[in-house]
Structures are given as C-alpha cells and as structure tokens.
Design goal:
8% helix, 2 helices, 14 strands, 236 residues, four-stranded antiparallel sheet
Length: 236
C-alpha cells in the first residue's frame, strides 16, 4: 500500500491550500481547490482529488478548527491509501535479443500515434535505437515479413522519435535529443519533406533512420525493458 497525507486549510474571509502531499510520480494525484462566496458572504470551498490509474484508492477525511491569526481556521485532513502499483511483465510474444532486451515486430500497419499507443498497452514503447548492434539486430525482425505493403511503405517501420514539437529538432518519445541516443544514422537523402513528415521510422534494409508522415500506416517495432533493468514501464 502507498500512503499519502494531505492538508487543506480554509480561513474565514479567504481560502488557501497547503498541499504537502507529494508522491513519487507527479501524475499520481491531482488536487484542485475551488472557493466561492455565497450571497450571505460566507465562503464555500470544494476540494477535488483526481487520479489516473486503475488502482483502488481509499480516502478518509477528518477536520478540526483552530485559531489562526485571530481568525477561525478549519483544517481538513485527508488520509489517502492506494494499492501497490503493478509492475509490467514482458508479454509472451516478445522476442529476447541477446544483450539488448525484448522486442516485437508488429506487421499490422498503424499510424505512428496508434503504434505508440499499442506499445504502451503492451507495457513497452516504440523502439529507440541506441547502438549499431541494436540496429543490426532489428533487421532480423523483418525477415518473416518480406511483403507487407506496396511500394516504399514495405521498407519502413515506425519507431520512437519525432520532431512534432520543433521542426528539425528530433527527439525520442522520452523527449531526449535523437543525437544523444548513441545512434543517429540516417538513410541517404533523409530526412525529407520537413513540412509534412514529423514522425520517425527505420528501414528494413539497415535500420537507418527516416522521417514519414505520422498518419501513414506502417509496420512498427516495440521495445520492452530487459530483466537487468529495475522495472518495466508502467502500464496505462
């Protein structure tokens, strides 16, 4: 169980919040405090708690009244417990590549965004290539699928980088500069069409990089962390 202790303080004549309730992940809990003075001049305050996962949350609320700078102060204390977050397990159909991690080649074409979401649902992420060794290993994942699509689309798969935020500044799905990944080998002539192609792909032939339209449906490659790493990415 994970435990959070939160305090919301309300004073007559105004409302303010003191929120010493920081968790290890900023997205665990979101608090909002809405206050409004009614027609009789009294303040009404509503505290809202939001969380974005499927764990069971138990909330116990208590309050007490004290004097604060000669004003009556109401302290609302919320004790919140949540069940321990489940860690992801490598899906059974992921392939272990020696010394690298677990990977899955998805032959059913999807847009870049749908591919990204599919990987996340599998407790993985669109692959980020970090070395020439990894690039060479990914080429082997293509071999069972010699003919998936027609034309150039048969030669490319979505992977985890883009320049959606700033044109020409390529970052990974973790918002790290592409040049910092350890692998930045582009296919000759790439990138192209900077005004219409913002999502990353790798080639069948050599895992060299290219840019494609985000709405183009291509095969894609997901990557899950290896057992040597601390834990798998959290499931959505």
């Amino acid at each position: 169980m994970r435990f959070f202790h939160c305090i919301v303080v309300c004073c007559l004549g105004g409302v303010y919040a003191g929120l010493p309730c920081l968790s290890t992940r900023a997205t665990d809990l979101k608090f909002s405090l809405v206050s409004q003075r009614n027609e009789n001049g009294k303040w009404n305050a509503q505290v809202q708690l939001q969380h974005q996962d499927n764990r069971k949350w138990d909330v116990n609320v208590d309050q007490k009244t004290i004097e604060c700078d000669d004003k009556e102060t109401i302290i609302v204390i919320a004790n919140i417990t949540a069940s321990q977050e489940k860690k992801c397990q490598v899906p059974a159909d992921y392939q272990l590549l020696d010394g690298l991690g677990y990977y899955k080649f998805h032959p059913v074409p999807k847009t870049w965004f749908d591919a990204r979401d599919t990987c996340v649902k599998e407790c993985a992420h669109l692959v980020v290539i970090n070395s020439q060794k990894e690039a060479d290993a990914l080429v082997n994942l293509w071999k069972p699928y010699p003919s998936l699509l027609s034309g150039w689309m048969n030669e490319w798969a979505h992977i985890g980088f883009n320049d959606l935020k700033t044109k020409g500044q390529y970052v990974t799905i973790f918002n790290q500069p592409l040049k910092s990944t350890g692998y930045n080998k582009w296919e000759p002539g790439q990138p192209t069409h900077p005004d219409t192609e913002f999502c990353g792909a790798s080639s069948r032939r050599a895992s060299t990089l290219g840019d494609v339209g985000c709405d183009v449906k291509l095969a894609f490659i997901c990557e899950a962390r290896s057992p040597s790493q601390e834990e798998f990415p959290p499931c959505d």
